[in-house]
Design a protein that fits this description.
four-stranded antiparallel beta sheet, 23 helices, 576 residues
């Protein structure tokens, strides 16, 4: 835009000095002799300022029209706003050529007398207007508009440009041959063979390797992946203690001495049931005609008994924080005290007798030696718990797990040896006389087979198969055929860029092996085997291709130049 401004100044500056003084003289004469009228002012203004600069010319059906500097600025603003606010991106950049092409679309909308119907405007703005008048006003103001009318006019103009594009793009319809070409390219068939080098085949060679303490320390410090680290870490664990009341204890004299079992209200029982039904009252086996949640009627007095146990344990929770000898306190209250002084790992908490389950995981979020305030309710008993010691998940010192780390290192060596063998397989393949280092390696099927046999590798045949998945003709492959499926995708995706006989890989599939593939050849798919769904997909892709081609060929600056003789005005800058 800065160059355009410079050009504009240059045009004005081309007016000769003699001409300027002559015009000034005429103006002074007119002011002295005549009363200044509106038309005279307009004449004088044009004389001093000049007509708007012409940025380009374009041939419309009605004749050649100019794209002036004001047209250009308006098109640039509308284009940028439409792309930012409405997602209408017709061009990839904001170059002068793109703006001129957009300005041509505006001129075409004028030429075709395209108008935006009020209903179209309402549909476009409904999402903004529906939020209320204040929100709508704040929105168009945030866009830099002084009024709703100015904002809505921009929307109308953007819709007009879209209508022009839609009208022009009606020609972007693929032919039947276009559809068949897309289908043929999508399902072109290829014949592929491959060899897989499995890391496990190098286990003996890796086991014979010795690792120095320095190399092992470096491997342990910086080369372990997250899975290996997780395997070596010591699991988090917790030691804790529990105070428990069960249904039998609730009937004892010891409990009755401090807990008065007042009859709970219906509202209290309803609330307790609603809060615990998904935890305590779920059926173990559910039939087609049974609700998974046990109803109040079926539970009978169980809800009341559970409620009273919960109330009793809640009373104990008020006294426990100030209790020094928890075991004696529990005996006095008729409760059961259980101490788990040995650390129990997280994965084993579900197996703890009587109280095991996911609720014990809460211990890791609690503070050591502090009783957790919320009782844990289970079928037949309720308990309070507190952690007495916790151990975070941690990686032991290398000296403690050296043997395990060595095994991981040797597993990595298996992978390295397999990778080196795969590279060597490719390196040993014959090269043609015109081969240049870095070129793709291409060999015959026999040469690839011989090279694999020399490396004691078995050849696997993918056979003739379409480059992309095709349900109607694909063979049945086991779900664990990772290498086969991945190679089909990899080779198929590159097929257009490969030559027959080319080597693809090596490709590392982790513990599944390292594969080297060989493209034997390709052939066109048999169109007589085309299914309706395949045709419809090909038609959709062909339509997309046609529209993309339309955008690049028709509404681009070059396309507009061909169709409408769009021409930029070239200016030569003149020094003052």
């Amino acid at each position: 835009m800065s160059s355009d401004k410079t050009n504009e100044l240059t045009e004005v500056q081309q007016m000769s000095t003699m001409k300027r003084w002559s015009l000034i003289g005429v103006a002074v004469f007119c002011l002295l002799i005549f009363t200044v009228t509106g038309p005279m002012t307009e004449v004088l203004t044009k004389a001093f300022s000049g007509d708007p600069l012409v940025e380009a010319t374009v041939d419309m059906p009605s004749g050649t029209v100019n794209i002036t500097s004001s047209d250009y600025r308006y098109a640039a603003n509308l284009k940028e706003w439409s792309e930012r606010m409405l997602g209408r991106s017709l061009y990839d950049d904001n170059s002068t050529e793109s703006v001129l092409a957009y300005a041509t679309l505006i001129k075409l909308a004028d030429e075709m007398q395209i108008q935006t119907a009020d209903s179209q405007l309402r549909d476009m703005l409904n999402v903004f207007v529906s939020q209320g008048a204040d929100a709508y006003r704040n929105f168009w103001r945030s866009q830099g508009f002084a009024s709703a009318l100015g904002f809505e006019n921009y929307v109308r103009q953007s819709l007009r440009v879209g209508a022009v594009v839609d009208l022009l793009s009606t020609s972007a319809v693929p032919t039947e041959q276009d559809v068949l070409d897309v289908w043929s390219e999508s399902f072109q068939e290829m014949n592929v063979q491959y060899a897989v080098l499995h890391p496990s085949n190098f286990a003996d060679a890796a086991a014979a390797l010795e690792v120095s303490d320095e190399d092992l320390a470096a491997f342990f410090a910086s080369e372990l992946n997250p899975q290996e680290t997780s395997e070596l870490e010591v699991e988090q664990a917790v030691a804790f203690e529990v105070v428990l009341l069960d249904e039998a204890a609730m009937g004892s004299d010891a409990v009755k001495a401090w807990f008065s079992a007042d009859e709970p209200s219906a509202e209290a029982l309803d609330g307790f049931y609603a809060s615990n039904k998904y935890l305590l009252y779920v059926r173990e086996k559910v039939g087609d005609d049974l609700d998974p949640i046990i109803s109040r009627e079926e539970l009978g007095d169980r809800v009341k008994n559970d409620y009273l146990m919960h109330q009793a344990v809640t009373e104990l929770s008020f006294e426990l924080p100030d209790t020094e000898n928890v075991q004696e306190f529990s005996a006095e209250k008729g409760a059961t005290y259980i101490s788990y002084s040995e650390m129990i790992e997280l994965s084993l908490l579900g197996d703890v007798e009587l109280i095991g389950g996911v609720q014990l995981r809460r211990l890791f979020q609690a503070e050591e030696n502090i009783w957790m305030p919320s009782p844990v309710q289970m079928e037949g008993h309720v308990f309070l718990m507190r952690p007495t010691a916790k151990r975070d998940r941690q990686l032991p010192e290398l000296t403690e797990i050296r043997g395990d780390v060595v095994e991981l290192w040797r597993s990595r060596q298996q992978q390295r040896l397999a990778s080196e063998a795969a590279d060597q397989l490719v390196a040993d393949l014959p090269r043609g006389v015109d081969y240049v280092e870095g070129d793709a390696v291409s060999v015959s099927a026999e040469e690839f087979t011989n090279a694999a046999a020399g490396a004691s590798l078995a050849i696997e045949q993918m056979g003739w198969i379409s480059r992309t998945s095709r349900t109607t003709t694909d063979p049945f492959w086991p779900s664990d055929a990772t290498v086969l499926r991945s190679l089909r995708t990899q080779v198929g995706g590159q097929l257009s860029d490969l030559v027959d006989g080319e080597i693809v890989g090596p490709q590392d599939f982790g513990d599944k092996g390292i594969a080297v593939a060989h493209l034997i050849g390709r052939r066109d798919a048999d169109s007589s085997s085309m299914w309706p769904a395949e045709y419809e997909r090909a038609k959709m892709l062909a339509t997309q291709n046609a529209y993309t081609s339309f955008q690049s060929d028709q509404i681009s600056y070059e396309g507009m130049a061909r169709t409408y003789n769009l021409q930029k005005v070239e200016r030569v800058e003149v020094a003052n």
